[in-house]
Amino acid sequence: MILPPAPLAVTSGRLPDRWIPAKWHRLQQACRLVLGPPRQVGLDIQFDEVSETVASIVARNSLGPPQAQSNGVAGWILSQRTLQSLEGAAKTNLVRSRTLILPTADQTEVRLRNRRRNPIDYSGDLFSRLEKEKVDLSTHLIATSPAQSNFVAAVRAQIPYGKLLLVLDVRQPESATNRFEFLIAAYEVDAKGNIIHGNTGGK
After folding, report:
1. Which of 117, 138, 116 lies closest to 12, judged by CA?
2. 183 in helix, strand or coil?
3. Measured between alpha carbons, how far is 111 from 85 in angstroms, rounded to an integer?
4. I need a labelling partner for 76 at 20 to 30 A (CA). Which of 9, 139, 164, 185 fits?
5. Residue 158 near residue 138, CB atoms below 8 Å
């Protein structure tokens, strides 16, 4: 689903952990002894800036119609094969950045910030919920550039393990202008960072 371009409205933390004050260490420990530690999520986010029309991006990568589109944003759930096609056409990218977010707890909001010196500034808030066969991901993404208007996308997607989410700027679809895209992989990891479900999308 493409959501209104507003900050995420989520409540972080599993029940009953979110109700326990941070200073109540013993009660937190007791809760973890009973329920076990929170499950861990890995999020792999790749940001690209490309200079193509929407039609050429869709055709070149055989994306087909998006699963959702509105507010100048389109989203696809991709397979590993489609990802390889996207990476094989990387020479068309004007800016290519890749950020790996360290594992975070299930049902906990995490923030991505581009800290490199780069003409493009991008950021994101992500909230993921691990389910049996997929990750329920809500994200609010922003890309800013001095050369063009800001790109803001708010998306909620149910990503099957082993798949990826592509979020594409589809404003001015007929224009070969600079546009932004985010590629997001979500997976479950254990306490040592080993992948349990899903993959890193070609990390």
Report:
1. 138
2. strand
3. 28
4. 9
5. no
Tell me the per-residue pLDDT of 97-122, one tens digit each, with 9 for 90 and over: 556 566 688 888 888 877 555 667 88
Supply the Cα-derived Rg of the chain in whole angstroms.
Answer: 18
Identify which has the larger pLDDT, 93 or 43: 43
- CA angle at 87 for the pair 147 and 90, rounded to the nearest 5°: 40
Give the N- to C-terminal CA distance of the chain in Å, as an integer: 26
The 10s digit of each residue's pLDDT in 132-173 is: 899 999 999 998 877 777 899 999 999 999 899 999 999 989
Q: Convert the pLDDT of each residue in 187-196 to its tens digit.
A: 888 878 788 8
Asked if residues 8 and 109 have their Cβ atoms less than 8 Å apart, the reply is yes
| Nearest Cα to Cα of residue 145 among 99, 172, 112, 179 | 179
Between CA 96 and CA 46 the distance in angstroms is 8
The whole-angstrom separation of Cα 54 and Cα 51 is: 9
- Report the Cα 110 to chain-centroid distance in Å: 11
State both tokens at 137.
């991901």
Say if residue 16 is preceded by a cis peptide, omega within 30 of 0.
yes
